[in-house]
Amino acid sequence: MVTWMPRKPSYDRDALIDRARDVFWRQGWAGTSLKDLERELKLNPGSFYAAFGSKDALYALALQRYAQEGVARLTALAERLGAKGALQEQPRLVIEATGAPAKACMLAKTYAELQAKDHELAGQAGVHMAEMKACFADLFRRAQEAGEISPDHDPERLATRYQSDLLGLRLSAERSNVDARAVAADIAADIDRL
């Protein structure tokens, strides 16, 4: 009796998620077709569905990857520069990121594109943005504990404003007629005044 073993996929799933993230980040959900994904990932339709199930399932994985990488970068930055230093450096880093498919935040782009359609992916993007805001709030708390920021401020409110500033900065960085570096410097300088 011959027993058939399933063939091991000949692709690196993590690398495919990274490539799909970049396509989705650049083109958005509606702007990315299955044919775009199959071409970019070099998968035939059967392999694509076997690997990911659907465009939405792959998009959710790409969103999760994007969010996890953002938290990891911020955590590493805080380990290197301290909480306040990380908060001040983050604006410059987001606009100077080389190789990024877009300057605008993928989470915010997804939320803006899909929330009016009540699409599940908009909800996921919102959850990831809330997680990022929680990271910012934690850094503001740590900076307060270190005596670098006045304890008179609510860390949650600071985090909300900071995230809003970063999202606006990212959109401004997409525009050729805005000096995003100057805006990033202003955001960093505002933290010194807290």
Describe the protein's architecture and organization.
The protein has one domain: Tetracycline Repressor, domain 2 (Orthogonal Bundle), CATH 1.10.357. The chain has eight helices and no strands. Helix 1 crosses helix 4, helix 4 runs parallel beside helix 6 and helix 4 crosses helix 8. The longest helix has 42 residues. The protein is elongated. The model has no long low-confidence stretch (mean pLDDT 93).
Can you count the beta strands?
Answer: 0
Question: How is the main sheet built?
Answer: none
**Basic shape:** elongated
CATH homologous superfamily - what is it?
Tetracycline Repressor, domain 2
Radius of gyration: 20 Å
Helix segment tally: 8
From the N-terminal CA to the C-terminal CA, the straight-line distance is 75 Å
Poorly predicted parts: none
CATH C-level label: Mainly Alpha
Sheet-strand content, in percent, reads: under 5%
Counted up, domains total 1
Structural class: mainly alpha
Helix content: over 70%
CATH architecture: Orthogonal Bundle
In the CATH scheme, what's the topology name? Answer: Tetracycline Repressor, domain 2
What is the overall pLDDT average? 93
Could you spell the SSE succession in H and E letters? Answer: HHHHHHHH
